[in-house]
Design goal:
Elements (H helix, E strand, L loop, with lengths): L4 E2 L5 E2 L17 E5 L2 H8 L9 E5 L4 E7 L2 E7 L4 H12 L6 E11 L8 E3 L2 E7 L16 E3 L3 E2 L2 H14 L8 E3 L2 E5 L19 H8 L3 E5 L2 H10 L13 E2 L8 E5 L18 E12 L2
Bound molecules: 1-O-phosphono-alpha-D-ribofuranose.
Length: 297
């Protein structure tokens, strides 16, 4: 789909679709489950009510939005891929596409640290960020007094949503399950699956002691993944700021034009109310639940 974008500050198509996720007003619900892959999104979406038929939109940039109802309640399931940049596109573009409060739960996988075995379900109540410090001299480290990695202060999940998620998971857990559900722990979100998670590759990442350093310095650290810090941080920063789109602003006509809508089914207009272009004061609640796929020392 070729289209003209309006507003260089916050690009939208002429029919008010956001630039990367491709969704328009009324196509996303206030309750969102976000996952990292389309196959997971489709698995979660298989639990939606069959009627009304869910709305499905796949954007050229790889974001998949499925909006339907679960036991009558509107919900969107959105696959965003990996990493903080994709989380940033997702939270910011959805915030400007949905009016009122947002509740976002990331459903993902993570690595576990000591004492968190594979199969454990973890609901982190706080998160730190691990960043590869590009000002560190990775080639000649002896010349540099910078740390190779920076560890942020923790940011908290939404306490009320986290408790709702915990209760729902406990209620849904099969009586035969031996997997633990743990909360009250800290997750670390890394800016690389490799260097910032202590993995050894052919690059001189100077990360041999990183996991041990994290365990020594971050109290209650239990898991490692790549997206949750940015979700929690954006949610905690949100102050209900009003963003007004500029009617009649100069169209953007240069550069690649997204989104390309590769798949849509049915109009979701009957599922959620169209979002006004001026947002009221609102909150963003964020929580996460992760399945540990491997544990590391
Ligand atoms: C890396 O393999 C991916 O797996 C984890 C990491 O955060 C990263 O996105 O999460 P998901 O399985 O939920 O994508």
């Amino acid at each position: 789909m070729k289209d003209t974008l309006t507003d260089a500050n916050f690009p939208r198509t002429a029919d008010q679709r956001v630039y990367h996720l491709g969704v328009g007003p009324g196509e996303v619900a206030n309750r969102i489950v976000t996952v990292g892959s389309p196959s997971r999104a489709n698995t979660v979406a298989s639990f939606l009510d069959s009627q009304p038929k869910p709305f499905i939109l796949s954007s050229e940039r790889g974001f998949l939005t499925i909006t339907g109802r679960y036991k009558g309640t509107p919900i969107s399931i959105i696959s965003i891929g990996m990493g903080s940049p994709n989380m940033d596109f997702f939270v910011r573009e959805i915030r400007e596409s949905v009016s009122g409060d947002l509740a976002i739960v990331r459903l993902g996988s993570c690595g576990g640290l000591v004492d968190v075995p594979p199969g454990t379900v973890v609901i982190p109540t706080a998160c730190v960020a691990i960043s590869r410090n590009v000002d560190f001299d990775f080639v000649n480290p002896e010349n540099c007094d910078e740390p190779a990695y920076r560890i942020s202060k923790p940011v908290s999940a939404d306490a009320a949503l986290t408790e709702e998620v915990r209760k729902a998971l406990e209620a849904a857990k099969p009586s035969s399950s031996t997997s633990a559900i743990i909360t009250g722990v800290v997750n670390a979100s890394a800016d690389s699956f490799y260097s910032s998670q202590g993995r050894q590759t052919s690059f001189p990442d100077h990360n041999e002691d990183l996991i041990q350093y994290l365990q020594n310095t971050v109290p209650n650290l239990a898991t490692l993944e790549m997206e949750t810090f940015h979700l929690y941080h954006l949610a905690a920063c949100w102050k209900g700021r009003t963003l007004t789109t500029k009617a009649g602003s100069t169209p953007l006509t240069t550069g690649p034009v997204s989104p390309t809508i590769t798949q849509t089914t049915s109009s979701p207009a009957h599922l959620v109310h169209p979002a006004p272009m001026t947002l009221p004061n609102s909150i963003i609640r964020a929580a996460a639940t992760h399945l540990v796929f491997a544990s590391r020392k």
